[in-house]
Design brief:
By secondary structure, the first copy, chain A, is α/β, with parallel strands linked by helices. The first copy, chain A, is built from eleven helices and 14 strands. Chain A has a seven-stranded parallel β-sheet, with helices on both faces. In chain A, helix 1 crosses helix 10 and helix 2 packs parallel to helix 3. The model of chain A has no long low-confidence stretch (mean pLDDT 97). At the A-B interface, helix 1, helix 3, helix 4, strand 13 and helix 10 of A face helix 1, helix 3, helix 4, strand 13 and helix 10 of B.
Chain lengths: 328, 328
């Protein structure tokens, strides 16, 4: 019997989940829940039922896992604990500093409801966290490096758009090759912010806007750009729409560590992602962990879980005998 | 209280475990068990107790996990089930085709003894298997690629040494850059054996040996070399000892998959290892999973497990609160 998935929130992430369900034949989409007027929401695929978010609890026995597709700033801290009382849930909460607080809130709700709630699932936090954890467990003497990109940072693009005279913008975070190579060679460099990443901005301005002022406002913006080498390119809206409509991202997690009697042998563990669509990849990770949430809850487990708590066997559609014979 | 580790078998792997325990302050070495005469065995570090292998059962209550450091061809199929009756055990059984059979034998023994037995732990099988599994769970539509090297293949080096006139040899398996690049670009190439790896051999021959015949015997050797582009370099024993005494290895696991409504977005997940010492890295993986075996058994779990069955939280020395706050 297929695992029935509910989608709460229909932005890029929700659409990604809708598409990814079609690639997992052990799952089916129960429906989309939205705060908008359901009749006005047009789904990507045909025949998807759309419900009002506030009516979701009526379907609590029809949905195996609710995928909560909201923002980390305000949506998820409120929604995940609320829904964890009635549903197995999964979210992609990515405000690293607030994870312990979110975990505690969600854990209490999920335990009260007898449900599994997986939080902070995606690639960072998520697959990158897993790789940091495995690599640290294997090589206790070492250093961790995380590089992001090349990819679009939504937050930085938004920050540029708020500058007066700017119509639209797209910002790419790009790891600096020289730094990556030094890490890969085992040189264990100490890298400043500026040495790890650079930022490239494509900006559309209003007619007659002062480009010199805008460029200066961008490159000197504290927190966002001031600590980086930032390049600014002014382009037309047509060029932005044509050349920069994708949402690519990715990055690298590297651990460089030593073993041996005199710590004379070096080992480099590297994990990297190159993603054409950041939200679609995140959605695909969410679904794999939705499968795990469903199975773990069926075995009687409950409470809040992260990727650290999930044995890989729960993620895989194939049965353990097959996995041992073909994938081990 | 420290986790007490026993080492059964004192080759490169056992020595690696001995060294790695010193890097994990939650572990201590109980002793080394050997089939040799204990008084004749000189350990790398001072003060290590050495026991006869056949007396190990006397210490079953003193040892939390026995790390079985033997060969996959004949040692492990016999030793792991035998020891799993009395100890939590861990091995690096790497004959992929015989894993289901080994699993069944070990599982029966471990369940009878109420112990955890982890098999096929290392990097392939092991970390590479994990990465294949995670990547497949995330991207169901895709292709898997595994490349090995650059590294020393012990089996291929041995095969060369058996040729008449050869004194010593070292064989390197080397992934072919062009193939790797095509995979990374998402071209999903179909690659023949010859297109994926090449083989490089450094050979020391007896005085007056027929080098042309030896080279021909190597490059035409079925299974080992005939399907590869193989280069042979004749060098002196001094050069071999000076330039080729290390046991480096590594490799790449890549999954190239697609998502989206029309499967229009491509994603590349890559995991790679660059290891100065193959046995020391394997030993380090074994110890992380020894920690997991000990903890899982303490929680009442028993039977045979592989890397697929172990939630990452069991591998990590740090407690889950710390991990969520700092590594997620």
């Amino acid at each position: 019997m297929a695992i029935k998935i509910g989608i709460l929130g229909y932005g890029n992430l929700g659409k990604g989940v809708e598409c990814a369900i079609r690639q997992n034949d052990d799952m089916e989409l129960f429906g989309v829940f939205t705060r908008r007027e359901p009749s006005e929401l047009k789904t990507l695929t045909e025949g998807v039922k759309v419900f009002k978010a506030e009516e979701s609890v009526k379907y609590k026995n029809d949905i195996d896992v609710m995928v909560i597709c909201g923002g980390s700033a305000t949506d998820l801290p409120r929604l995940t604990p609320e829904y964890a009382k009635d549903f197995n849930v999964i979210d992609s909460f990515d405000t690293h500093a607030r994870i312990p607080e979110h975990f505690a809130n969600v854990d209490a709700a999920a335990k009260a409801g007898g449900k599994i709630a997986m939080i902070s699932v995606g690639w960072d936090p998520g697959m990158f966290s897993l790789n940091r954890a495995y690599a640290n467990a294997i090589l206790p003497d070492g250093a961790d490096y995380t590089f992001w990109g090349k990819g679009v940072s939504q937050g930085h693009s938004d920050a540029i758009r708020r500058i007066e005279g700017v119509c639209d913008a797209r910002q790419y975070t790009i790891p600096i090759d020289k730094a990556l190579e030094a890490v890969r060679k085992g040189e264990n460099p100490e890298l400043s912010t500026r040495e790890k990443h650079r930022r490239e901005c494509f900006v559309v301005v209003k007619e007659g806007a002062d480009k010199a002022r805008i460029e200066k406002e961008i490159v000197t913006m504290p927190n966002y750009f001031a600590d980086y080498d930032t390049s600014v390119h002014f382009i037309s809206q047509e060029e932005l729409d044509r050349d920069h409509k994708g949402i690519p991202h990715g990055g690298f997690v590297i651990r460089s560590g030593v073993t041996g009697l005199k710590k004379e042998n070096r080992h480099i563990i590297e994990y990297s992602l190159k993603l054409d669509s950041n939200p679609e990849f995140t959605s695909s990770v969410l679904l794999a962990y939705a499968r795990a949430a469903y199975r773990m809850n069926k075995e009687g487990m409950k409470g809040c879980k992260t990727v650290f708590d999930v044995a890989p066997v729960y993620l895989m559609k194939e049965d353990p005998d097959f996995m041992r014979a073909h994938m081990l």
